[in-house]
Write a structure and sequence with these properties.
- The structure is a single chain.
- By secondary structure, this protein is an alpha+beta fold.
- The chain has 2 domains: 56 residues, no CATH class; 170 residues, Lambda Exonuclease, Chain A.
- It is 35% helix and 18% strand.
- Strands 2, 3, 4, 7, 8, 9 and 10 form a 7-stranded mixed sheet that branches.
- It is globular, with a radius of gyration of 22 Å.
- The termini are far apart.
- The mean pLDDT is 85.
Amino acid sequence: MSWVSDAIDVPRETSGILVPKILGFLGSDRDSSPPRATGYHASAMFDFCPRETALVHRHFKVVPGKEEFSSTTLFTFKRGSVTHGILQNGVLAKMGVLVGWWCKLNTEERVEGVCPQDGGVWEYEEPSFRVSIDGTPDGPQWDLVGACDGILVLDGQTVGLEAKSCKTSIYRGLPKAFEDMRLIRDWYAAGGGSSKWHDKYARGHTFQLQIYLNALGIEDGVVLYLPKEPTQDDPPLLEFAVKRDPGVMDVAKKKIRLVAEAENGGDWRGPVPEGICRTPGCLRAQKCPVVNQCFSGDLA
């Protein structure tokens, strides 16, 4: 008896019956959008430019609203969530080094500490925070918010974790980028001084982790990278140690204060902040909607 049937003609090209449905669902399903707390998010503060915000409102009369993402971007978010879930719940939880709050699947049971090893399915709650900024109007929309990927206890040392995945081309340049990285607290260089993606990753993710360390009161941290296309020639993981620098938190707060000054009670006629980009050709400026107004001086 043959297990191979010649009665089925297997198509060699995709039929297009599934992919459009998946992307259509992601584009229309409101629950597909990642939950975002009201406020300024730590993950975006390195690239955040107060000058761009002020000029967009002044020139285009834009009113801030809900973030909109394309279906392909939402699918990328979901893949990232899966990677984080594997690392947090499938690896670090079983190692007994990830600490915080754990929720038992399909129950209301919550426990604090390391993940219980009782055979149940537990999911990690990422430590979140909300920091009020002096010198801004009242309201949660002016707060600095975020959630750390995890808090680890390694050999008695508490460590904040920021985990990222990236392309192999960027992955290979990270050791040199972290070696060359200088102080990043100077907000004029933050986000706008990078000409290469591995430099931007190293600075941006360190900046992000520094906010987490300061908000959560942790002295030490590690940025962990996973390659999206692992090869035998590359290490399976890369890690870079970070010491808490209060100056980085001051930079983030300053950015938000400058936006509040420019907002000027809602008319956006307050002082226009300086930009974070050094040239119109840097990675940050290439995607800025007001790069021409910014570098031409058209601020009226």
